[in-house]
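User: Hi! I'm working on a homework problem where we have to compare a predicted structure to a textbook description. Could you give me the structure for the chain below?
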Amino acid sequence: QVQLVESGGGLVHPGGSLRLSCAASGFTFSSYAMHWYRQAPGKERELLAGIASDGSSTNYADSVKGRFTISRDNAKKTVYLQMNSLKPEDTAVYYCKFRRRGMDIWGKGTLVTVSS
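Assistant: Happy to help. Predicted structure tokens:
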């Protein structure tokens, strides 16, 4: 069964850091590019970052460039999102996703709350 499970969310103070993980199973993880998205209350889901299947290239939304870093460990079938200098506007549910056979496969998300 194809599955993505995010973890690592929680409550953090402004300026703090978190590292999110997305554990994959049920498919050949190393063959697919992976992406992180987020959705804040009342807003559309936003693409944050992507990473190539072999980790050789990454890209970021302007809103997180320089603060967030996407990485992956194909041996562990896991993709990560290191988030630094967090702001209250980073509060959202964070999702990982990949696309296979024209279909987007999503995890259930992990909640990140940035608040003092």
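For your comparison, note the following. The two ends are 40 Å apart (CA to CA). The chain has no helices and eleven strands. Good luck with the assignment!
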